[in-house]
């Protein structure tokens, strides 16, 4: 993944992740049960990131390659189907589902597991937020290697390269539909979609009549400043009622959803609020200090509209995509809720 929106908990990983983001493969996601099958454990074919993935029977040894994917599998009632949970140090599981994962082996720490560690648990289904987790050059198991070992690989729709620049929060619903079909838990998946849609509808109604604030989304590592102008992150701000300072029509974001900017250019934009992703409390404190000392006269700083969000919640294919839409909207327009 990439540091701007999905930074690992180790700053040293940022450079590798920026390169890894460029390895994301194509997108697209649709479920096609095999002829005569119902999708409740029988063969299911999924079009995912430009690939056709066929699952013969409901998986019994799944691995969530990020806590966001592990959480989704747990909420679908699949705790007994989990053979591993990866990158567990990226994000704590919510309190209500964490006990369900206590006996699930942890693979790796803040980074994806090594090829050997992942293959050791003999997975038959690997569910990842992006294709970075399968970068062989980083020592991870490649998609081809996993398929040769008998594992189906599914990547969150919003984490596919062809979708990365145009991704939307609702891409999560495609993933829930697909995974629900693959595991034969369609009702549970539909319930999560319904709950998420209700949250988005509630936010949309609350911000429908607000005077939109101009909001910039940034990522700070040390003194390097990046702006986020496309993809799921852009859609999150839009749904929260923000007038995005940076957008996909800007030349800087023609080929990638994040771009390095100068402090002078951000100051000149005079945003009313700043949203920034962080990977831990220390990173949040450092980012706040940088923003407040670098931009003391900026409206966002003067009016104390510095909104931190967890980098894990902007990973593609996570329920966090839904929750931070509401969180950001409430903090931008508290009187609307």
UniProtKB/TrEMBL annotation:
Keywords: Signal. InterPro entries: ABC_Transporter_SBP, ABC_transptr_periplasmic_BD. The keyword Signal applies. It holds the Pfam family Peripla_BP_2. Residues 1-30 form the signal peptide. It comes from the Bacteria. PROSITE patterns: FE_B12_PBP. Belongs to the bacterial solute-binding protein 8 family. This is ABC transporter substrate-binding protein. It comes from Promicromonospora aerolata. The lineage of its organism: Bacteria, Bacillati, Actinomycetota, Actinomycetes, Micrococcales.
């Amino acid at each position: 993944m990439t540091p701007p929106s999905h930074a690992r908990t180790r700053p040293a990983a940022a450079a590798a992740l920026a390169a890894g983001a460029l390895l994301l493969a194509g997108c697209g996601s649709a479920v096609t049960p095999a002829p005569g099958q119902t999708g409740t454990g029988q063969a299911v074919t999924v079009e995912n990131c430009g690939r056709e993935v066929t699952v013969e029977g409901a998986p019994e040894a799944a691995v969530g390659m990020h806590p966001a994917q592990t959480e989704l599998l747990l909420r679908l009632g699949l705790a007994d189907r989990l053979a591993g949970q990866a990158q567990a140090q990226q994000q704590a599981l919510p309190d209500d589902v964490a006990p369900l994962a206590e006996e699930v082996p942890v693979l790796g720490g803040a980074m994806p597991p090594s090829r050997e560690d992942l293959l050791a648990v003999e997975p038959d289904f690997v569910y990842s937020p992006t294709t970075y987790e399968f970068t062989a050059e980083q020592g991870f198991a490649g998609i081809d290697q996993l398929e040769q070992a008998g594992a189906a690989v599914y990547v969150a729709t919003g984490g596919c390269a062809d979708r990365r620049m145009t991704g939307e929060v609702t891409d999560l619903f495609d993933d829930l539909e697909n995974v629900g079909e693959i595991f034969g838990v369609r009702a549970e998946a539909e319930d999560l979609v319904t709950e998420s849609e209700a949250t988005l509808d509630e936010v949309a109604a609350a911000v429908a009549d607000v005077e939109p604030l101009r909001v910039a989304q940034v990522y700070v590592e040390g003194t390097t400043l990046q702006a986020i102008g496309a993809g799921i992150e852009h859609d999150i701000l839009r749904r929260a009622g923000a007038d995005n300072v940076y957008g996909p029509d800007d030349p800087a974001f023609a080929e990638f959803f994040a771009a390095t900017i100068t402090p002078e250019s951000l100051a000149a934009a005079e945003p009313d609020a700043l949203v920034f992703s962080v990977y831990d409390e220390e990173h949040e404190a450092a980012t706040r200090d940088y923003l407040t000392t670098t931009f003391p006269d900026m409206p966002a700083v003067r009016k104390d509209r510095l909104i931190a969000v967890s980098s894990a919640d902007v990973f593609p294919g996570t329920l966090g995509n839904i929750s931070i839409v509401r969180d950001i909207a409430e903090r931008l327009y508290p009187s609307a809720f």
